[in-house]
Amino acid sequence: MNKINSIFISILLFFSANSLSFAQETQEIIVQSLPIERFKGVLRGEKVDELIWRGGIEVSSDYQEFGGLSGITFTGDNYKIVMVSDIGNFFSAQLIYDEFDQLLALGGVEMSAITNSKGNVLPRRFAQDAEAIDTIYRFGKVASIRVGFENLTRVADFELNNGKPFGAAKEVAIPHDLSKERTNASLEALCIAPKNSPIADSTLLITENMLVGENIAGFMLGNKDRGRFSIKKTKSMNPTDCAFLENGDLLILERGISFLSFSMQLRLIKAEKVQPKALLEGEVILSARGSKNIDNMEGLAVYKDANDKERIIIISDDNFNDWERTLFLEFSFE
Q1: Residue 239: inside a domain, yes or no?
Q2: pTM of the model
Q3: How many structural domains comprise the chain?
């Protein structure tokens, strides 16, 4: 997360932290969606780097707590999604497509507070900073979601009802070397390996800037596949999210910040390389910089479109700043 403080957000967070009575309640949010036709000068359906640009949307809302989106996952049919925000909220929604299978809008948006293990709203800003989310499958069916937090570094699972989170958090044990970290450089990305991966069902935890030598620290949670790994650090960039392709290949999203401008890149790492103790590097399949094409890109997910083809969606965290945007950008391999 890009830590840019303001008087407005401080006031907002104070009231959010003291609104414990809103646990389990949902709030419908009206959002506006504007289409994004071009990316790095290419039109929808055209190649950009090693991917195909599939279009996107810019989303905004007059509701002051909408924003700060740091992670996204798919939780059901009809493109149902759940996103997490920096101030301790879940946003459940549905991606809406037109007859040409192009992303048209974000619909059915509902906000609910992320809760602690007692079912209460997270009590203070230090505990609210959710940065990553992925879906847990059991027997091929959506079962629950797993969420990663920085600052008060931890991982927790939440049940789903009709694709939407509910109930108290169920804490997941993570390595002490990670849980003892109490900064925004700790846990930033979380993704769960699919059945076709050599490390199927293992959870990858990737830090933003905890270093092992000169590389980024990562942790693997699995029955057989458990331990540390590391990611080759890219100059001026840090990981913000990860996601697996169906075949087990791993995608890592990275983001860089320079004054008021952002850069991003997407790396692909082959499935057989993703193992405990490994140093992951892979190849860059997408990159961009500047304020026109991208923003503070933080969330990453993979899903199947209407033609059963994998698509990649990347979302941005606006940090509740007027000069940043909430973007949904889509790409595919073919």
Answers
A1: yes
A2: 0.92
A3: 1
